[in-house]
Specification:
By secondary structure, the chain is an alpha/beta fold. The protein is built from 10 helices and 6 strands, in the order E-H-E-H-E-H-E-H-E-H-E-H-H-H-H-H. The chain has helices at 10-20, 35-47, 66-76, 91-100, 112-123, 131-142, 153-163, 168-175, 179-193, 198-207, and strands at residues 2-6, 27-32, 54-57, 81-86, 104-107, 128-129. It has a 6-stranded parallel sheet, with helices on both faces. 31% of the residues are buried.
């Protein structure tokens, strides 16, 4: 199977390439140093009907991050499977990657054999998760977080802005996102905190010490 390796560290790409290319069923189709370069390479491969079976991608990269790149890949080339290989195991990042269509999520302390297993699983249409990531997802199901712990970092930022009396458009301007995205974040904050209004959200933020009481 053909693999595209996407990582902004050349030594990581070379190490992965060296390991995969000794395997009979693996071929490294190309490398890319960031998400934008990966998309350019994939579009060129598609033009020649030489798309890889799997993209192995980092999350934190310049120009275009991994989660955004995954979403674009799945939109342009839905037949290509994507496996994340990153140093970050925070559940917020895991959810973002899986929501964009990732078929696997590994941490960089994984054994080489696990990386190969994840690539093969993805090529078969299966999902492969790092054991630590799988435990985190299971814990969320068994004991879902509540209160502030249920919010992502971005949602906490939105909560503070709501408590400051900002409108959806003002929140969008502050965070450099669309008004629609801001509105979605506000709705998610209210839902996760089990609140029914922005006023209740503001009071919650004050009680949590996120913002001072308004005069």
């Amino acid at each position: 199977m053909r693999v595209l390796i996407v990582d902004d560290h050349a030594v990581v790409r070379r190490g992965i390439r060296a390991y995969l290319e000794v395997l009979d069923d693996m071929e490294v189709a190309a490398e890319a140093a960031d998400g934008q370069e990966a998309l350019t390479r994939l579009d060129a491969m598609a033009a020649h009907r030489e798309l890889p079976d799997v993209v192995l991608i980092d999350l934190l990269m310049p120009r275009m991050d991994g989660a955004t790149t995954i979403g674009v890949i799945k939109n342009r080339h839905p037949e290509v499977r994507v496996v994340v290989l990153t140093s970050f195991g925070e559940m917020e990042r895991v959810h973002a990657a899986l929501a964009q269509g990732a078929a696997g999520y590994l941490l960089k302390d994984a054994e080489a054999g696990e990386v190969v297993a994840a690539i093969r699983a993805a090529a078969r249409g299966e999902v492969f998760l790092d054991p630590e990531v799988a435990r985190g997802l299971t814990q969320e199901i068994v004991s879902p977080p509540t209160g502030l712990a249920a919010l992502t970092v971005r949602e906490r930022d939105v909560l503070v802005l709501v408590a400051e009396g900002r409108s959806n458009q003002q929140i969008a301007d502050e965070l450099v996102i669309s008004e629609r995205t801001a509105r979605t974040h506000v709705s998610n904050v209210l839902r996760k905190l089990r609140l029914t209004s922005r006023t209740q959200a503001a009071l919650f933020a004050v009680r949590q010490g996120l913002v001072p009481p308004r005069a």
